[in-house]
Amino acid sequence: MKKLLFSGLFGGLALVFSLELGAQSKYRKAGAAPSTAPTTTVAPVAKPATTNSSVQKANTSKLSSANNNLASDTSTKKTPSVSGSSRYRPGNNTPAPAPSNSSTSGGVSTVTYDTTIQGGFDAKPEISLRNNYAVDRSQVRDRKPLAYEDLREDDALFSQFIWREIDGREKINQSFMYPGKDNNGDQRFFSILLSAIKNDSVVAFSADNDRFTIPLTTNQVMALTGGSLDTQEVADPVTGVIDRVVTKKAKFSPDSVYTFRIKEQVVFDKEASRLFTRIIGIAPIAKQVAAGKSFARVLFWIYYPDLRASLTKFEVYNPKNFSSRMTWEELFESRFFSSNIIKSSLGNPGDKSLSAMIKDPLYRLLEGENIKQKIFSYEQDLWQH
Fold first, then answer.
1. In total, how many domains does the chain have?
2. Angstrom distance (rounded) from CA 92 to CA 96
Protein backbone atom coordinates (compact mmCIF):
# COMPACT_ATOMS: atom_id res chain seq x y z
CA MET A 1 0.00 0.00 0.00
CA LYS A 2 2.83 2.39 0.93
CA LYS A 3 4.73 1.41 -2.23
CA LEU A 4 1.75 2.34 -4.35
CA LEU A 5 1.36 5.67 -2.51
CA PHE A 6 5.05 6.64 -2.95
CA SER A 7 5.11 5.55 -6.55
CA GLY A 8 2.01 7.65 -7.31
CA LEU A 9 3.53 10.68 -5.50
CA PHE A 10 6.81 10.41 -7.40
CA GLY A 11 4.94 9.92 -10.66
CA GLY A 12 2.90 13.09 -10.08
CA LEU A 13 5.99 15.11 -9.19
CA ALA A 14 7.77 13.86 -12.29
CA LEU A 15 4.78 14.86 -14.44
CA VAL A 16 4.68 18.35 -12.91
CA PHE A 17 8.42 18.91 -13.44
CA SER A 18 8.24 17.72 -17.02
CA LEU A 19 5.38 20.11 -17.77
CA GLU A 20 7.30 23.05 -16.20
CA LEU A 21 10.44 22.24 -18.16
CA GLY A 22 8.46 22.08 -21.41
CA ALA A 23 6.73 25.39 -20.67
CA GLN A 24 9.99 27.22 -19.80
CA SER A 25 11.92 25.93 -22.84
CA LYS A 26 10.76 28.80 -24.98
CA TYR A 27 12.60 31.29 -22.72
CA ARG A 28 15.95 29.52 -23.12
CA LYS A 29 18.70 30.96 -25.33
CA ALA A 30 18.99 29.68 -28.85
CA GLY A 31 21.53 26.93 -29.19
CA ALA A 32 21.69 26.28 -25.42
CA ALA A 33 22.09 22.67 -24.39
CA PRO A 34 19.13 21.09 -22.68
CA SER A 35 19.33 20.81 -18.92
CA THR A 36 20.75 17.48 -17.61
CA ALA A 37 19.67 18.02 -14.02
CA PRO A 38 17.81 15.12 -12.45
CA THR A 39 14.11 15.39 -12.15
CA THR A 40 14.29 15.25 -8.40
CA THR A 41 16.20 18.57 -8.01
CA VAL A 42 14.52 21.97 -7.62
CA ALA A 43 17.13 23.84 -9.78
CA PRO A 44 14.99 24.11 -12.90
CA VAL A 45 12.45 26.27 -11.06
CA ALA A 46 14.90 29.22 -10.86
CA LYS A 47 15.86 29.09 -14.58
CA PRO A 48 12.97 31.19 -15.93
CA ALA A 49 14.11 34.25 -13.88
CA THR A 50 17.66 34.07 -15.14
CA THR A 51 16.46 33.45 -18.67
CA ASN A 52 14.15 36.54 -18.58
CA SER A 53 16.95 38.83 -17.38
CA SER A 54 19.31 37.66 -20.11
CA VAL A 55 16.65 38.09 -22.78
CA GLN A 56 15.94 41.60 -21.45
CA LYS A 57 19.63 42.46 -21.63
CA ALA A 58 19.83 41.09 -25.16
CA ASN A 59 16.79 43.14 -26.18
CA THR A 60 18.28 46.24 -24.56
CA SER A 61 21.56 45.76 -26.41
CA LYS A 62 19.71 45.29 -29.71
CA LEU A 63 17.68 48.48 -29.07
CA SER A 64 20.81 50.50 -28.31
CA SER A 65 22.57 49.18 -31.40
CA ALA A 66 19.53 50.03 -33.51
CA ASN A 67 19.51 53.58 -32.08
CA ASN A 68 23.21 53.90 -32.84
CA ASN A 69 22.65 52.76 -36.42
CA LEU A 70 19.77 55.25 -36.80
CA ALA A 71 21.95 58.05 -35.47
CA SER A 72 24.76 57.14 -37.82
CA ASP A 73 22.38 57.03 -40.80
CA THR A 74 20.97 60.41 -39.83
CA SER A 75 24.42 61.95 -39.57
CA THR A 76 25.65 60.55 -42.86
CA LYS A 77 22.55 61.10 -44.97
CA LYS A 78 21.75 64.60 -46.34
CA THR A 79 18.58 66.29 -45.32
CA PRO A 80 16.23 66.41 -48.32
CA SER A 81 15.28 69.85 -49.61
CA VAL A 82 11.85 71.08 -48.61
CA SER A 83 9.72 72.70 -51.31
CA GLY A 84 6.79 74.97 -50.86
CA SER A 85 6.48 78.03 -48.72
CA SER A 86 5.18 79.07 -45.34
CA ARG A 87 5.15 82.17 -43.23
CA TYR A 88 8.52 81.14 -41.78
CA ARG A 89 10.18 79.69 -44.89
CA PRO A 90 10.37 81.41 -48.30
CA GLY A 91 9.00 79.37 -51.15
CA ASN A 92 10.78 78.27 -54.29
CA ASN A 93 9.21 81.07 -56.35
CA THR A 94 10.04 83.74 -53.80
CA PRO A 95 12.74 85.99 -55.29
CA ALA A 96 15.88 86.10 -53.28
CA PRO A 97 16.89 89.44 -51.80
CA ALA A 98 19.34 91.52 -53.77
CA PRO A 99 22.83 90.45 -52.79
CA SER A 100 25.19 93.00 -51.38
CA ASN A 101 28.89 92.54 -51.98
CA SER A 102 31.05 93.20 -48.97
CA SER A 103 34.78 93.02 -48.47
CA THR A 104 37.21 93.94 -45.74
CA SER A 105 40.60 95.53 -46.31
CA GLY A 106 42.74 97.18 -43.65
CA GLY A 107 39.98 97.05 -41.03
CA VAL A 108 37.54 98.99 -43.25
CA SER A 109 34.61 97.03 -44.67
CA THR A 110 33.24 97.95 -48.10
CA VAL A 111 29.56 97.25 -48.76
CA THR A 112 28.13 97.55 -52.29
CA TYR A 113 24.40 97.84 -53.01
CA ASP A 114 22.80 97.70 -56.45
CA THR A 115 19.59 99.73 -56.35
CA THR A 116 19.08 99.83 -60.09
CA ILE A 117 15.48 99.40 -61.15
CA GLN A 118 15.31 96.48 -63.58
CA GLY A 119 13.11 95.97 -66.58
CA GLY A 120 14.17 99.14 -68.34
CA PHE A 121 14.92 99.89 -71.96
CA ASP A 122 17.11 96.93 -72.87
CA ALA A 123 14.26 94.38 -72.97
CA LYS A 124 13.73 92.57 -76.25
CA PRO A 125 10.56 93.50 -78.16
CA GLU A 126 7.76 90.96 -78.24
CA ILE A 127 6.61 90.27 -81.80
CA SER A 128 2.89 89.71 -82.42
CA LEU A 129 2.21 86.27 -83.88
CA ARG A 130 -1.14 87.39 -85.29
CA ASN A 131 -2.39 90.58 -86.93
CA ASN A 132 -2.77 93.00 -84.05
CA TYR A 133 -4.90 95.42 -86.09
CA ALA A 134 -8.29 95.33 -87.74
CA VAL A 135 -6.70 96.39 -91.05
CA ASP A 136 -3.86 94.73 -92.92
CA ARG A 137 -0.62 96.50 -92.05
CA SER A 138 1.71 93.80 -93.31
CA GLN A 139 3.01 95.96 -96.14
CA VAL A 140 6.61 96.96 -95.70
CA ARG A 141 6.94 100.73 -95.59
CA ASP A 142 10.34 101.60 -96.97
CA ARG A 143 10.61 105.11 -95.66
CA LYS A 144 13.67 107.21 -96.19
CA PRO A 145 14.34 110.71 -94.93
CA LEU A 146 14.36 113.51 -97.45
CA ALA A 147 17.81 114.74 -98.37
CA TYR A 148 18.85 118.09 -96.95
CA GLU A 149 19.26 121.09 -99.20
CA ASP A 150 22.91 121.86 -99.72
CA LEU A 151 24.06 124.91 -97.78
CA ARG A 152 27.29 126.51 -98.98
CA GLU A 153 29.48 128.19 -96.43
CA ASP A 154 29.85 131.23 -98.67
CA ASP A 155 26.07 131.66 -98.75
CA ALA A 156 25.70 131.54 -94.95
CA LEU A 157 25.10 135.20 -94.22
CA PHE A 158 24.13 134.66 -90.58
CA SER A 159 24.69 131.67 -88.26
CA GLN A 160 24.18 130.95 -84.56
CA PHE A 161 24.24 127.86 -82.34
CA ILE A 162 21.35 127.21 -79.96
CA TRP A 163 20.89 124.58 -77.27
CA ARG A 164 17.35 123.59 -76.31
CA GLU A 165 15.75 121.22 -73.82
CA ILE A 166 12.56 119.27 -74.46
CA ASP A 167 10.55 118.38 -71.37
CA GLY A 168 8.43 115.24 -71.96
CA ARG A 169 6.13 116.16 -69.07
CA GLU A 170 4.59 118.98 -71.07
CA LYS A 171 1.28 118.18 -72.71
CA ILE A 172 2.51 118.82 -76.24
CA ASN A 173 5.55 116.58 -75.62
CA GLN A 174 3.77 113.59 -74.09
CA SER A 175 4.60 111.50 -77.15
CA PHE A 176 8.20 111.38 -75.93
CA MET A 177 7.07 109.40 -72.86
CA TYR A 178 4.45 107.13 -74.47
CA PRO A 179 5.05 103.68 -72.83
CA GLY A 180 3.14 101.66 -75.44
CA LYS A 181 4.46 98.40 -76.85
CA ASP A 182 4.84 97.65 -80.54
CA ASN A 183 6.66 95.11 -82.67
CA ASN A 184 9.54 97.57 -82.66
CA GLY A 185 9.59 97.55 -78.84
CA ASP A 186 8.99 100.28 -76.31
CA GLN A 187 7.69 103.52 -77.81
CA ARG A 188 9.45 105.89 -75.43
CA PHE A 189 11.79 108.15 -77.34
CA PHE A 190 14.77 107.07 -75.26
CA SER A 191 14.01 103.44 -76.13
CA ILE A 192 14.05 104.45 -79.80
CA LEU A 193 17.50 105.97 -79.34
CA LEU A 194 18.80 102.78 -77.73
CA SER A 195 17.24 100.70 -80.50
CA ALA A 196 19.06 102.80 -83.10
CA ILE A 197 22.35 102.25 -81.27
CA LYS A 198 21.91 98.48 -80.90
CA ASN A 199 20.21 97.58 -84.17
CA ASP A 200 21.13 100.30 -86.69
CA SER A 201 24.79 100.82 -85.72
CA VAL A 202 24.24 104.44 -84.77
CA VAL A 203 27.29 105.68 -82.87
CA ALA A 204 26.82 107.34 -79.50
CA PHE A 205 29.39 109.81 -78.20
CA SER A 206 30.55 110.69 -74.73
CA ALA A 207 28.76 113.38 -72.77
CA ASP A 208 32.04 115.07 -71.85
CA ASN A 209 31.36 117.55 -74.65
CA ASP A 210 28.83 118.10 -77.41
CA ARG A 211 31.30 118.02 -80.32
CA PHE A 212 31.19 114.20 -80.85
CA THR A 213 34.83 113.53 -80.00
CA ILE A 214 34.76 110.25 -77.99
CA PRO A 215 32.68 107.37 -79.43
CA LEU A 216 31.09 104.87 -77.05
CA THR A 217 30.53 101.16 -77.53
CA THR A 218 27.13 99.53 -77.13
CA ASN A 219 28.14 97.98 -73.81
CA GLN A 220 29.26 101.35 -72.51
CA VAL A 221 25.94 102.89 -73.47
CA MET A 222 24.00 100.08 -71.76
CA ALA A 223 26.12 100.49 -68.65
CA LEU A 224 25.03 104.13 -68.45
CA THR A 225 21.43 103.03 -67.86
CA GLY A 226 22.52 101.19 -64.69
CA GLY A 227 23.15 104.35 -62.75
CA SER A 228 26.32 105.97 -61.44
CA LEU A 229 28.15 104.83 -58.33
CA ASP A 230 27.77 106.79 -55.11
CA THR A 231 30.39 106.14 -52.40
CA GLN A 232 29.93 107.23 -48.79
CA GLU A 233 32.36 106.80 -45.90
CA VAL A 234 30.79 105.85 -42.56
CA ALA A 235 32.75 106.82 -39.43
CA ASP A 236 32.48 105.41 -35.92
CA PRO A 237 30.43 107.87 -33.81
CA VAL A 238 32.72 107.38 -30.77
CA THR A 239 36.23 107.28 -32.22
CA GLY A 240 35.54 109.05 -35.48
CA VAL A 241 37.57 106.49 -37.42
CA ILE A 242 36.20 105.45 -40.80
CA ASP A 243 35.23 101.81 -40.45
CA ARG A 244 32.95 101.27 -43.42
CA VAL A 245 32.60 102.43 -47.03
CA VAL A 246 29.15 102.10 -48.63
CA THR A 247 28.91 102.13 -52.42
CA LYS A 248 25.49 102.44 -54.02
CA LYS A 249 24.21 102.71 -57.57
CA ALA A 250 21.86 105.55 -58.26
CA LYS A 251 18.29 104.54 -58.98
CA PHE A 252 17.50 104.46 -62.70
CA SER A 253 13.86 104.22 -63.69
CA PRO A 254 12.55 103.89 -67.27
CA ASP A 255 10.48 107.01 -66.69
CA SER A 256 13.42 109.04 -65.40
CA VAL A 257 14.52 110.07 -68.91
CA TYR A 258 11.97 112.69 -69.87
CA THR A 259 14.34 115.53 -70.84
CA PHE A 260 16.20 115.69 -74.15
CA ARG A 261 18.80 118.27 -75.09
CA ILE A 262 19.11 119.44 -78.68
CA LYS A 263 22.01 121.22 -80.29
CA GLU A 264 21.05 123.05 -83.46
CA GLN A 265 22.40 125.67 -85.81
CA VAL A 266 20.40 128.50 -87.32
CA VAL A 267 21.70 129.55 -90.75
CA PHE A 268 20.39 132.27 -93.03
CA ASP A 269 21.14 131.33 -96.63
CA LYS A 270 21.38 134.39 -98.86
CA GLU A 271 20.90 132.33 -102.03
CA ALA A 272 17.55 130.91 -100.88
CA SER A 273 16.78 134.06 -98.86
CA ARG A 274 15.44 132.05 -95.95
CA LEU A 275 16.40 130.90 -92.50
CA PHE A 276 17.32 127.22 -92.01
CA THR A 277 17.34 125.43 -88.68
CA ARG A 278 19.36 122.22 -88.66
CA ILE A 279 19.53 119.89 -85.67
CA ILE A 280 23.12 118.78 -85.04
CA GLY A 281 22.81 116.42 -82.07
CA ILE A 282 20.43 114.96 -79.47
CA ALA A 283 21.32 113.99 -75.90
CA PRO A 284 19.03 112.26 -73.36
CA ILE A 285 19.16 113.55 -69.80
CA ALA A 286 18.35 111.23 -66.89
CA LYS A 287 17.09 112.33 -63.51
CA GLN A 288 18.96 110.21 -60.98
CA VAL A 289 18.98 110.00 -57.21
CA ALA A 290 22.20 109.56 -55.22
CA ALA A 291 22.82 110.25 -51.52
CA GLY A 292 19.22 111.37 -51.22
CA LYS A 293 19.63 114.13 -53.81
CA SER A 294 18.28 114.36 -57.35
CA PHE A 295 20.49 115.57 -60.17
CA ALA A 296 20.39 115.71 -63.97
CA ARG A 297 22.91 113.68 -65.91
CA VAL A 298 23.59 113.83 -69.64
CA LEU A 299 24.01 110.22 -70.77
CA PHE A 300 25.43 110.54 -74.30
CA TRP A 301 25.20 112.48 -77.55
CA ILE A 302 23.99 111.21 -80.92
CA TYR A 303 24.76 112.89 -84.22
CA TYR A 304 21.31 113.68 -85.59
CA PRO A 305 22.03 113.17 -89.35
CA ASP A 306 23.08 109.59 -88.51
CA LEU A 307 19.84 109.08 -86.57
CA ARG A 308 17.37 110.26 -89.21
CA ALA A 309 17.13 106.92 -91.04
CA SER A 310 16.27 105.12 -87.79
CA LEU A 311 13.65 107.70 -86.81
CA THR A 312 11.69 106.99 -89.99
CA LYS A 313 10.94 103.44 -88.74
CA PHE A 314 9.06 104.62 -85.66
CA GLU A 315 5.76 106.47 -85.57
CA VAL A 316 4.80 109.14 -83.07
CA TYR A 317 1.82 108.53 -80.81
CA ASN A 318 -1.23 110.51 -81.96
CA PRO A 319 -3.86 110.79 -79.22
CA LYS A 320 -6.58 111.91 -81.63
CA ASN A 321 -6.17 109.62 -84.64
CA PHE A 322 -4.15 106.40 -84.66
CA SER A 323 -4.22 106.19 -88.47
CA SER A 324 -2.75 109.67 -88.93
CA ARG A 325 0.60 109.30 -87.31
CA MET A 326 3.85 110.87 -88.43
CA THR A 327 7.35 109.50 -88.03
CA TRP A 328 9.80 110.84 -85.51
CA GLU A 329 11.91 112.26 -88.32
CA GLU A 330 8.91 114.27 -89.54
CA LEU A 331 8.27 115.50 -85.99
CA PHE A 332 11.73 116.99 -85.64
CA GLU A 333 11.92 118.40 -89.15
CA SER A 334 8.45 119.98 -88.80
CA ARG A 335 9.30 121.27 -85.28
CA PHE A 336 6.21 119.71 -83.66
CA PHE A 337 7.59 119.96 -80.14
CA SER A 338 7.96 122.52 -77.38
CA SER A 339 11.37 123.45 -75.99
CA ASN A 340 13.20 126.04 -73.92
CA ILE A 341 16.49 127.67 -74.88
CA ILE A 342 19.17 126.96 -72.28
CA LYS A 343 22.23 128.29 -74.11
CA SER A 344 23.12 130.34 -77.16
CA SER A 345 26.21 131.56 -78.91
CA LEU A 346 24.43 134.90 -79.49
CA GLY A 347 25.93 137.53 -77.19
CA ASN A 348 27.70 134.89 -75.06
CA PRO A 349 31.50 135.48 -75.15
CA GLY A 350 31.98 133.41 -71.99
CA ASP A 351 30.26 130.34 -73.50
CA LYS A 352 28.02 130.00 -70.45
CA SER A 353 24.57 128.54 -70.14
CA LEU A 354 21.64 130.68 -69.09
CA SER A 355 21.49 128.93 -65.72
CA ALA A 356 25.07 130.06 -64.99
CA MET A 357 24.29 133.66 -65.90
CA ILE A 358 20.72 133.99 -64.58
CA LYS A 359 19.70 132.40 -61.28
CA ASP A 360 15.98 133.13 -61.43
CA PRO A 361 14.26 130.41 -63.53
CA LEU A 362 11.54 132.83 -64.64
CA TYR A 363 14.08 135.29 -65.99
CA ARG A 364 15.86 132.42 -67.76
CA LEU A 365 12.65 131.60 -69.63
CA LEU A 366 12.23 135.25 -70.56
CA GLU A 367 15.82 135.43 -71.79
CA GLY A 368 15.22 132.35 -73.95
CA GLU A 369 12.21 134.03 -75.54
CA ASN A 370 14.34 137.14 -76.05
CA ILE A 371 16.90 135.07 -78.01
CA LYS A 372 14.11 133.66 -80.21
CA GLN A 373 12.87 137.17 -80.91
CA LYS A 374 16.34 138.39 -81.86
CA ILE A 375 16.76 135.62 -84.44
CA PHE A 376 13.29 136.24 -85.83
CA SER A 377 13.89 139.98 -86.03
CA TYR A 378 17.17 139.50 -87.87
CA GLU A 379 15.42 137.63 -90.68
CA GLN A 380 12.57 140.13 -90.88
CA ASP A 381 14.82 143.15 -90.88
CA LEU A 382 16.57 141.94 -94.00
CA TRP A 383 13.44 142.65 -96.05
CA GLN A 384 12.37 146.08 -97.18
CA HIS A 385 8.78 146.95 -97.88
1. 1
2. 9
The β-bridge relationship of strands 242-249 and 108-113 is parallel
The per-residue DSSP string of 364-376 comes to HHHHHHHHHHHHH
144 vs 329: CA distance, rounded Å = 10
Task: List, for residues 194-232, the tens digit of each pLDDT value.
Answer: 999 998 999 999 999 999 999 999 989 988 876 556 666
Cβ neighbors of 306 (< 8 A, separation 6 or more) are 202, 203
Give a yes or no: residue 56 inside a domain. no
Q: For residue 180, what are the domain limits?
A: 155-381
Task: Report if residue 91 sits inside a domain.
Answer: no
Report if residue 16 sits inside a domain: no
* Distances in whole angstroms, Cα of residue 53 to Cα of each of 36, 112, 292, 385: 22, 69, 80, 135
Instruction: Indicate whether 92 belongs to any domain.
Output: no
Using DSSP's 3-state secondary structure scheme, residue 341 falls into: strand
Residues of the chain whose pLDDT is less than 50? 26, 29-53, 55, 57, 63, 66, 70-72, 74-100, 113-120
